[in-house]
Design a protein that fits this description.
By secondary structure, the protein is α+β, with helices and mostly antiparallel strands. It has two domains: 123 residues, no CATH class; 88 residues, no CATH class. The chain is built from nine helices and nine strands. The longest helix has 15 residues. It is globular and about 55 Å long.
């Protein structure tokens, strides 16, 4: 393999990258981001930037109906090819670490379209779930309740949230739990779909988490 092909596969085709333009800096200012954030974004992608936006279901009591409302937190997002997204996230995490910004996968299309990478201004990784409105309405678990549960897990078994949307989240375990089977039981209690429509057994879930070091929750 030619060396240039190696780096294109690892980081993407650098010919497609560009220096930040006036519109990039304007977009950063609109969400109160420091200029160096877009400068780092432009080191990994030339994709257009937009404001991070999430559709949330909002129930209007007076009208008795549920509608989708667009929620726009202070964040930026851009699209990335699935095979390049993980590398971009890793590079941006390293560049922005300690500066008050969190990078994560905001949408995952599993090859049916580009993924979306989001960046928010925060030191609290659980703000990812707040801004994405991550919840499990079929099990009457709202965002606040979910975050409370996950914080208790994090206190015992630290993890780093790598991505989330309204109905899923993925986290990298930073420490092995004392008991993988017990951890899998907790995951199943909170998120039955990951077993019933995924691994099929709690034992298989425990084995998968141990092998991958990943906590993955999703609700149908």
């Amino acid at each position: 393999m030619k060396i240039i092909d190696f780096f294109r596969r690892l980081f993407g085709d650098r010919k497609a990258l560009s220096n930040p333009g006036a519109s990039d800096y304007k977009m950063a200012a609109s969400v109160q981001f420091d200029p160096f954030v877009v400068e780092n974004i432009r080191s990994v992608t030339a994709a257009p930037l937009s404001r991070l936006a999430t559709e949330r279901e909002v129930y209007y009591v007076a009208e008795g109906k549920t509608v989708l409302e667009l929620y726009k937190p202070h964040g930026l997002q851009f699209k990335a090819k699935q095979e390049e997204a993980e590398g971009m996230i890793r590079r941006l995490k390293e560049a922005l670490h300690g500066n008050g910004y969190i990078v994560f996968r905001s949408e995952q299309k599993f090859g049916h379209g580009p993924d979306v990478i989001g960046i928010i201004k925060s030191n609290d990784q659980f703000d990812i779930l707040r801004c994405k409105g991550t919840e499990a309405p079929n099990y009457d678990i709202g965002s606040d309740a979910l975050i409370t549960t996950l914080k208790s897990w994090h206190a015992e078994t630290p993890f780093e949230i790598m991505g989330a949307d309204y109905d899923w989240l993925e986290a990298r375990l930073l420490k092995a739990p004392a008991d993988w089977d017990a951890m899998a039981e907790k995951v199943y209690a909170l998120c039955p779909d990951v077993v019933e429509q995924g691994t099929l057994t709690v034992a298989a879930l425990a084995a998968e988490m141990k092998e991958t070091g990943t906590l993955y929750l999703w609700w149908d």
